Amino acid sequence: MSFSRALFLLFPLLSLAFSHENLDTHLLPRPLIIEYTDKVETHLEESKEEEVILRCTSWRFSVEANNHNPWKTIPEECAEYVRDYITGRGYGMDLQRVSKEAADYAKSLELAGDGKDVWIFDIDETLLSNLPYYAHHGYGLEIFDPVEFDKWVDKAIAPPIEPSLELYKEVVGRGFKVFLLTGRSESRRKITVENLINAGFQDWDELILRSTDDHVKLATIFKSEKRGEMVKEGYRILGNSGDQWSDLLGASMSTRSFKLPNPMYYIP
Amino acid sequence: MSFSRALFLLFPLLSLAFSHENLDTHLLPRPLIIEYTDKVETHLEESKEEEVILRCTSWRFSVEANNHNPWKTIPEECAEYVRDYITGRGYGMDLQRVSKEAADYAKSLELAGDGKDVWIFDIDETLLSNLPYYAHHGYGLEIFDPVEFDKWVDKAIAPPIEPSLELYKEVVGRGFKVFLLTGRSESRRKITVENLINAGFQDWDELILRSTDDHVKLATIFKSEKRGEMVKEGYRILGNSGDQWSDLLGASMSTRSFKLPNPMYYIP
């Protein structure tokens, strides 16, 4: 058989080999198997990763829609997902979006001008960011440690959540009464004021913290009671911003509530 | 040259071609340039696509957390994202998750046994799926057309949302009074009953539709009023499942509410 004849016979085989990767297996089992295995593993890794992202996105939705509650830590398999969300662009984009939604709503309102129109803000993960703390505690992977957390709070260096600071200024500027309603203890009033001012917040009308009596209450109850007192005093609660559903739900709810994202922890 | 000799010479070329796809490029410059351009374009396409996915995920969360409202259609750039979510595994996974969360909660309750413990279900996109309709209307990209939609409703062929059917059976089986509270018109009672039964739902205690008087009311108001009547009659609303926040929020709210995903449309 001549070379050209051999080539002629090989050509269809050759072009087949170039155009249909999967067919090689029949011709050259060994190197092919290695390549095939690599690809399979990569594909498996990728689809495993996609599967985890799918599940963790679903988990995050159930958390943000308040279907999943209570919960103590983020699912272990979502550790990377949550970290990527928080440190990547997702969290920032969500914060900006909710701030814009709230600002658009605030701008659409005509205030009565009697000083009774109120906007409520929660503090932690709403006005102030504790990410420098949570970065060292797995972004919600570790069970909440109140002693360690209080040490962080006492430093009074929590940075502002910038989109919230923008909304805050907008709301203050439009003449809303601004009430800060936080689960922080009354014993942390001074340090909280110091931190808020350092972070650029000012001109709030009232800062409401938990008194000793309030400590046994669930956040939902404590905050509902405080909103109830506002309503009794004739205030109209038009807007409420918080990262926890316990900031927003319960009695004497605001006309509109704005849920900031927080896949790191849950407060009942 | 013998055939075996020709094969021997061809073998390195053949195995090179199989194992290092990219090396061919040195041999064949022209397609290489094209390939390079393709790659750059592919990367640009990919990062543009990632950007859209990021924005649309953010949009979806703002919808599901009720920050974004009202809205008439999905953002145009999210058409593909929403379709992929609905027809892919995301929507199904989210439906299963919320059904499980609700079932876990239902199982955790001890009913009084006086027949006054209630679970409320919305119908459209909660018990029955209108996906066959929305598949022909861009999954929320088109403005809602009530005339066309009613034609679909009148066919009475909407399939059940399977995870909701499971929850429904669980709740009925545990002895809850089941009230179906829907924005559908009273004129559609017969066809709705027919559809529900065809889809596997049975043994509900009451089916509440909108009367002529109710048509001017926002869904939130209509549903709040109906829940108010239940409470007046001594019922305890322990669970409420709906795909719209107007199913869940307002007065006489349920002890726990379960928000099913729905990025296709919004009802105030």
Automatic annotation (TrEMBL), chains A, B:
Signal sequence, renumbered to the chain: 1-19
Keyword Iron recorded: no
GO function terms (MF aspect): acid phosphatase activity; nutrient reservoir activity
InterPro entries: Acid_phosphat_B-like, Acid_phosphatase_pln, APS1/VSP, HAD-like_sf, HAD_sf
Record carries keyword Glycoprotein: yes
Keywords: Glycoprotein, Signal, Storage protein
Record-linked Pfam families: Acid_phosphat_B
Cited function: May function as somatic storage protein during early seedling development.
Assigned protein family: Belongs to the APS1/VSP family.
Name of the protein: Acid phosphatase
Gene encoding the protein: TorVSP3
